[in-house]
Amino acid sequence: AQTTRTKIRGIAICGYTQIVFTDSPGIFTAKTQLEKALVKSAWSAIKDNDRTLLLIDVKSYLRNIEKIKAMLVKLQHSCILILNKIDLIKRPELKMAYKYFNLLYKFEKIFMISALKNDGLFDLINYLSEFAPVGPWLYPEDQATDSSNDFLSAEITREKLFLNLHQELPYSTAVITEQFEKKKDKSLIIKQVIFALKESHKKIILGESGSNIKKINIEARSELEKIFEQKVHLFLFVKIRPWSDHPEEYLV
C-alpha cells in the first residue's frame, strides 16, 4: 500500500553502531502528475543510501509479482530482500517464496522476518551494522526518528485515510497538522486538515452521515494515543485544495 509519500527516517542502535533507515514512498505504475511525483521521490530516496532494502509482504507477494518484477528491472543495483509477515504463512509456502525470489533476482542477501513478533530483526540489524562507516553518530542516542510530532501525527491520519478509502481515493489526499498542543492535564489536542482534490472526494472522506471520517478519527486517535502514551483529542476538518495549487502538501 502507498502509505508513505516522503522520506521518513527511523534510527536503530546496534551496540556501538547507529543505523538510519529511510522509509521511501512505494514504487508503482504512475498515471497522474501527483503519482509521478511520488514515484520520482521514491527513486531519489533509493539513490541516497548505503544499502537498499526491499520489504515485501510474503503473504501476498504473488498478487503483486508483476509489479515487483518491473521494479527490479529498473533497480539495476545491489539490494537486500526482506520477506516480512513470515508468521502468517506455513513453512512450505515460505520455502517456496524464498526459492522463487532467489531465482528471480541476484539479491545481496535475503532475510525472513516478522516485524510484528520481532522475529529475525536482530539478524538483519546485525548484518547491516557490519557495513556502517566509522564516524560520529548522526542523531542523539535517544532519538528514534527525524520527523516532528506534527508530521508523525499527520502521517498516522493519512495512513488511516488510505487504508479505509484507497479504492476510492488513491493517493489524492493530504493531511496537515495545524495544532499540536499539550494540555495541563497532559492530554494532547491535535487539529488536522484533510485536503481533498475535489468536492466528490470530500464527500467520500466524510461518508454518509459522517461515517467514514468518524471511523478514521477513531482509528487514528487510538494509534496516536499508543505512540504518544497520552490521551488524544483529535479534530479533523476536510477542505478542498487542488494538487497544482500546493503540490508540496501532497508529497508530505
Automatic annotation (TrEMBL):
Entry GO terms, CC: cytosol
One Pfam family named in its UniProt record: KH_2
Location of the KH type-2 domain: 165-242
Span of domain Era-type G: 1-134
GO molecular function: GTP binding; ribosomal small subunit binding; rRNA binding
SUPFAM superfamilies, sorted: P-loop containing nucleoside triphosphate hydrolases (SSF52540), Prokaryotic type KH domain (KH-domain type II) (SSF54814)
NCBIfam families, alphabetized: era, PRK00089.1
Family assignment from sequence similarity: Belongs to the TRAFAC class TrmE-Era-EngA-EngB-Septin-like GTPase superfamily. Era GTPase family.
Protein name: Era-type guanine nucleotide-binding (G) domain,K homology domain-like, alpha/beta,GTP binding domain,GTP
Organism: Cinara cedri
